[in-house]
Design brief:
The complex is a heteroheptamer.
Chain D lengths: L1 H21 L21 H14 L4 H9 L1 H21 L11
Chain E lengths: L1 H22 L3 H21 L3 H25 L8
Helix pairs in contact in E: 1-2, 2-3
Chain G lengths: L1 H24 L3 H25 L6 H23 L3
Helix pairs in contact in G: 1-2, 2-3
Classes of the chains: A mainly alpha (about 525), B mainly alpha (about 120), C mainly alpha (about 110), D mainly alpha (about 100), E mainly alpha (about 80), F mainly alpha (about 150), G mainly alpha (about 80).
């Protein structure tokens, strides 16, 4: 068997195994010197990105992909002698999974390149890069897996790696305290998910998502399902930073080193993916999707409004951006929530699907521009040494590129036309308006407040007299930022590329849980 | 039937010693006496209950010839050895630590260890 | 009723853990609460798979099929190792926090941070 | 005030969960009596493991065959969780006695 | 019957130790009671016919976690509320 | 450093714990136990020596870098074993029932240890055992090491 | 014949409860550690007895692991009391 076939056949497994292998080898390879380690890490991240692209290609070409670990052959989901049940761990990759995996791998690569410059003077760098790889593994695993316990394991990898990364710059204990908070919140959330998994297992004797969904549909939605659903959805909403449970977000994002906040954004988007996956695929057939959808919509509204209001009060640049991240998460919840609320009715084809596409498009846009903003914030802190907005000023004189990138990010997050934020926000406004005009009005107001807030930041950080005599940041950091800026402008001018190849397959995949179940279980349902 | 009686005797001895040890743990006045009662007596008692198991295993081996019982007896003997090795040392470590941390025996009149230490 | 006692224990221990995590302000106490919750979930998993009169899922003697369910035990093994990893990491965080702030009281830590 | 409110919420939740734990409802209704609890209406996955585990993986211990074969990928994830935790401990404790002095 | 009584006693012991380890102000006492809780949990796994899990809990929960807790208390502070 | 009795006992007990840990690891597919449990047992042995002799003595014998390397190597063995089955599928148990090394069937019943069985399971057990041994020991070592310089 | 083992296990279990009482009440830390040590020994005995009850030979392994490892926990406690590390 030639290597190309091997890669093509085993792409889902390699997407996890290669970065994992990379993480295991990184501390060992560090003995050969820092350069070798960096080359290794970047190579592994690039290969992961390649595999993620390959997955998107496969899904777009051949439909939903399954990969069964340890089976012979690897597509044998249901062993013939088992009576129609899947017994092994199955990776199920549909449009949404591939979409999330692509975002994770892309941001991982970008942050990896960025950190080559920004972490140059730290000790224990091999641990930092190994943790970065593990975080990528956690996000990719959460996106690709079709097994509910496997989801828990990857969630745990994700949380622990993220907590360790947050504490990387010890910063007089502040970072460690933020990391402690993050780790406690994540662990308790993961334990609740494990509890819910145990309930679901005890009821259906299955750990595969498709199998659970099918059996839940057959036997009806019981009280125990209700408990499990509440635990899972509330926990995942907490992990993605929706408003009543958002208190860990500013600390975690604010204290994370350099560009790592950018990848933490994607880490919480992986939880968002989990939220969508659970509510659409696992519980979507049996539970009352309308009330679930309204639950998401209300969470989204609260997040949007409170996030942006709190952001006005901040004078720490990273905390401010963190509150904006909460606020932007609201848009995604709103868009997809409208889709879920109208799922199965005539209104779905009218505007629900469009709203979902808007929400999902917003995920990738948010990852790109919030990633860019956090990277610029990291660049500012790298040169200036403080994150307090009141102490900054006049940076545009010396850090021209950073200023331009910051402006691109700020315009994108506020939804100014030539950038990508405009496209997705427009989709959300148009479709949400048809469900309830009030929602669209709130979204528009929040968008304006966001613009105001970021103009304030730009004014206080970059304009004004020259205070600091600093140089431009290293080239690797600029290169990483320029990648993101390029994609922001690309998706802003040609949104159809993203929608056609990434967003629409994802939205259709989410809206069609029966296709998912049929692919795994092979008929029936 | 000899084995039955033997097992009964072992178990009863073991239980009595365990019970006495725990009662001593509850009733004695200070750390050292409690340590004395608890560790010594419970080690002794646990070994005797385990010896009952060994007797049963040998008896069954003799009766049925099933080698599983041999494994049982050997493993139980290993467990007894572990108990014998670890417990006294643990007790010693606790007593020494308690003495060093300044816990005084309640009703003791002479403290030879202190005298020795003073001589140094 | 009496056979539900493991589950009642699970709920009660879990709520003690939550109590420690929410109402106690010491960071190590929070970790203790987390440990309790995790133990409770482990117990829940294992007792979920228990079959009355079943034997452990290991073929030692004659091939018996009346066994307790093996999957929850496998899941619990995973969960235990994850738990010790989390505990170790959180406790090392505690040590560093104490080093820098001189206290483990959450409210004092927050005040010192300002 | 906040504490009182939280306590009330806690107690209500506790009572609810206890009620659920005491009255398992339809959680064990079908095959009932020989399970303590749970009594999954379905036991086919575990039965598959019990019946075929020894033949397919040739291990006497079914738990090990599940941990390392059927759900081996979980074990890989779990091992990497431990690896992550060790890296995290190393990162956090790297300054005082953790890193430079010994290496 | 007697098996059930043993199991009930183990479970009640677990509840008691869990409660006391939450209530106590002395973190060392908490660590010790958590150790006892872990031992009883291991015994409960034993009774529930899960030997693999019982070994893991005995090794990790009872041995290592107690050691780690003791070291963490040593490196920080023993009393929950200072002053 | 603890008293001489404890140290002597630790000397005596450590090989015993080591042997028993390897027994638990190697017989993982026959008796209860396996990689995690055995690794934890051996790591507790390391913890025993560490507590008996004190950190200052023990750091000359056991280097943290060696333990980290052991952890990495164990994980590498594990994932490479999984990779070898890649031509069929990841984690494919290519040795079970094949008649090669480790490829025999376990007979029913109590046995003195037919170790030559169960395909890739013993290899994975051993790999995970090494990994867990390294990981847990290095956690113990880090926590013992932390904050020592300040006290002196 | 089985019942005597069960009765023995029950009595040992009650003994454990008494030891827990000492672990809770103990005025000094050393008292609690003594109680912990006692509980370890008793649990090892119970495990050995129960493995006879369940007639599973391999369960004795757990007791061995237990006897070996609880010792380490005791040593750590003792070292804490001594003021070590």
């Amino acid at each position: 068997m030639n290597p190309w076939d091997l890669i093509m056949n085993n792409a889902p497994a390699l997407a996890i195994a290669i970065p994992l292998l990379g993480a295991f080898v990184t501390p060992l390879i560090n003995r050969a010197g820092r350069k070798a380690m960096l080359v290794w890490v970047i190579a592994v991240l690039a290969f992961t990105e390649f595999i993620a692209l390959l997955l998107v290609y496969q899904v777009n070409t051949y439909g939903i992909q399954v990969y069964v670990f340890g089976a012979n052959p690897h597509t044998l989901t249901v062993p013939p002698d088992s009576g129609g049940i899947p017994v092994r761990i199955i990776f199920t990759i549909d449009g949404m999974s591939a979409f999330t995996a692509l975002i994770s791998a892309t941001l991982g690569l970008v942050v990896g390149i960025y950190s080559v410059g920004s972490e140059k003077f730290q000790t224990a760098q091999e641990k930092f890069f190994a943790l970065l790889l593990l975080l990528v593994v956690g996000m990719m695993g959460m996106a690709l897996t079709g097994d509910i316990f496997n989801f828990f394991v990857f969630l745990e990898i994700n949380s622990l790696a993220a907590a360790a990364l947050v504490s990387y710059h010890l910063n007089k204990g502040k970072a460690v305290e933020a990391a402690f908070k993050y780790a406690v919140v994540s662990s308790i959330g993961a334990l609740m998910i494990l509890f819910a998994i145990a309930i679901l297992y005890g009821e259906y004797d299955a750990l595969n998502m498709a199998m659970i969904a099918q059996r839940m549909y057959q036997t009806g939605f019981s009280t125990y399902d209700m408990i499990a659903m509440t635990l899972i959805l509330v926990t995942l909403a907490m992990k993605c930073g929706a408003v009543p449970m958002h208190y860990w977000v500013p600390d975690g994002y604010g204290e994370a080193p350099g560009g790592t906040s950018a990848i933490l954004v994607v880490a919480s988007q992986a939880s968002l993916y989990g939220l969508f996956r659970m509510s659409f695929t696992v519980f979507g057939l049996s539970a009352n999707t309308s009330s679930l959808g309204w639950f998401m919509i209300i969470l989204g509204l609260l997040s949007m409004f409170i996030g942006v209001t709190m952001a006005f009060l901040q004078h720490d640049i990273k905390r401010l951006m963190a509150y904006h991240a909460v606020s932007q998460t609201g848009y995604m919840l709103l868009g997809v929530g409208v889709g879920l609320a109208t799922l199965g009715t005539a209104a779905f084809n009218q505007y629900g699907l469009y709203a979902m596409e808007g929400g999902i498009f917003h995920i990738i846009n948010h990852a790109l521009y919030k990633g860019l903003l956090f990277l610029t914030a990291g660049a500012i802190i790298y040169r200036v040494g403080t994150s307090d907005l009141n102490k900054m000023g006049g940076l545009a004189h010396s850090m021209k590129f950073t200023a331009v990138f910051f402006l691109i990010g700020a315009f994108a997050i506020a939804g100014i036309p030539p950038f990508n934020g405009f496209a997705s926000k427009l989709m959300i406004y148009e479709s949400v308006y048809q469900l309830n005009p009030f929602l669209a009005i709130v979204a528009a107001i929040v968008s304006m407040l966001t613009l105001a807030s970021f103009l304030k930041v730009f004014h206080s950080a970059f304009l004004g007299p020259k205070i600091y005599d600093v140089k431009e940041v290293p080239k690797s950091m600029l290169f990483a930022m320029s990648i993101l800026a390029f994609f922001i402008i690309l998706f802003g001018i040609f949104p159809n590329i993203a929608i056609h190849y990434l967003v629409a397959p994802a939205a259709h995949a989410l809206a069609n849980p029966l296709g998912y179940i049929t692919k795994v279980l092979g008929g029936g349902a | 039937m000899l084995a039955d009686y033997l097992i009964w005797i072992f178990i009863i001895i073991g239980l009595i010693f365990n019970g006495l040890g725990v009662i001593g743990l509850l009733r004695f006045p200070d750390v050292y006496t409690r340590l004395h009662a608890a560790t010594k007596a419970t080690t002794f008692g646990s070994i005797f209950t385990s010896l009952g198991v060994v007797t049963l295993a040998f008896w069954k081996l003799y009766e049925t010839g099933n080698t599983a019982n041999l494994v049982l007896s050997i493993h139980t003997l290993i467990a007894i050895a572990c108990l014998l090795l670890t417990n006294p040392v643990g007790a010693h470590a606790i007593a020494r630590a308690a003495y060093r941390s300044g816990v005084k025996p309640k009703m003791a009149v002479v403290d030879r260890l202190e005298e020795v230490n003073q001589d140094d | 009723m009496i056979f539900n006692l493991p589950f009642i224990t699970v709920i009660i221990v879990m709520f003690f853990g939550f109590y420690a995590m929410v109402f106690r302000r010491n960071l190590i106490k929070v970790v203790i609460g987390l440990d309790l919750v995790e133990s409770a979930v482990n117990l829940f998993l294992v007792s979920l798979g228990y079959v009355k009169g079943g034997v452990a899922p290991i073929y030692t003697s004659a091939p018996s099929t009346h066994m307790v369910l093996p999957t929850p035990q496998a899941l619990t093994l995973t969960s235990i190792v994850i738990g010790v990893a989390t505990t170790a990491m959180l406790l090392s965080f505690c040590m560093v926090i104490y080093k820098h702030y001189g206290t483990l009281d959450t409210r004092k830590v927050r005040r010192l941070e300002e | 005030m906040r504490n009182v409110l939280m306590s009330i919420v806690f107690l209500i939740l506790l009572a609810f969960m206890l009620y659920v734990a005491i009255n398992p409802g339809d959680f064990g209704s079908s095959t009932g009596e020989h399970f303590v609890f749970g009594a999954p209406k379905f036991t086919d996955m575990d039965n598959y493991f019990i019946h075929n585990g020894q033949n397919q993986t040739a291990a006497n211990n079914i738990v090990t065959s599940i941990v390392f074969d059927y759900r081996g990928f979980d074990t890989l994830g779990e091992a990497s969780v431990l690896f992550t935790a060790v890296l995290g401990v190393g990162v956090v404790l790297r300054l005082l006695g953790g890193g430079r002095n010994d290496e | 019957m007697i098996e059930d009584i043993i199991q009930i006693l183990v479970l009640i012991g677990m509840m008691i130790t869990a409660y006391l380890s939450v209530k106590s102000r002395d973190l060392m006492e908490c660590a010790i009671l958590l150790g006892v809780f872990s031992f009883l949990l291991s015994l409960e796994f034993f009774i529930l016919q899960a030997p693999d899990v019982a070994i893991a809990e005995a090794g990790i929960g009872a041995g290592l976690t107690t050691a780690i807790f003791v070291m963490a208390v040593r490196k920080t502070t023993r009393w929950e509320v200072e002053e | 450093m603890m008293s001489k009795i404890v140290r002597t006992q630790a000397n005596f007990l450590y090989p015993f714990i080591l042997i028993f840990g390897f027994y638990v690891v190697a017989h993982g597919h026959i008796t209860p136990g396996g990689g995690f449990q055995g690794g934890a047992v051996i790591a507790t042995g390391v913890a025993l020596v560490a507590v008996a002799y004190g950190y200052d003595t023990i750091k000359k014998w056991i280097k943290k870098t060696h333990l980290t390397a052991a952890e990495g190597i164990g994980l590498l063995c594990f994932i490479i074993t999984a990779f070898i089955g890649l031509s069929t599928s990841f984690f494919y148990n290519f040795l079970a029932n094949s008649g090669l090394i480790f490829g025999n069937r376990v007979p029913y019943g109590i046995n003195p240890g037919y170790l030559n069985t169960a395909g890739t399971l013993p290899i994975m057990n051993l790999a995970v055992g090494i990994e867990v041994l390294g990981g847990l020991s290095v956690i113990i070592m880090y926590m013992m090491a932390y904050g020592r310089e300040v006290k002196q | 014949m089985i019942s005597i083992w069960l009765v023995a296990a029950l009595i040992l279990m009650i003994c454990i409860f008494l030891a827990i009482a000492r672990a809770v009440a103990g005025p000094t830390l050393a008292d609690r550690v003594v109680a912990l040590d006692t509980i370890n020994t008793l649990i090892v005995a119970i495990m050995i007895i129960l493995s006879v009850v369940y007639s599973e030979v391999i369960y004795v392994d757990i007791a061995i692991v237990y006897a070996l490892l609880s010792f380490v926990a005791t040593l750590y406690m003792a070292k804490y009391i001594e003021g070590g590390f």
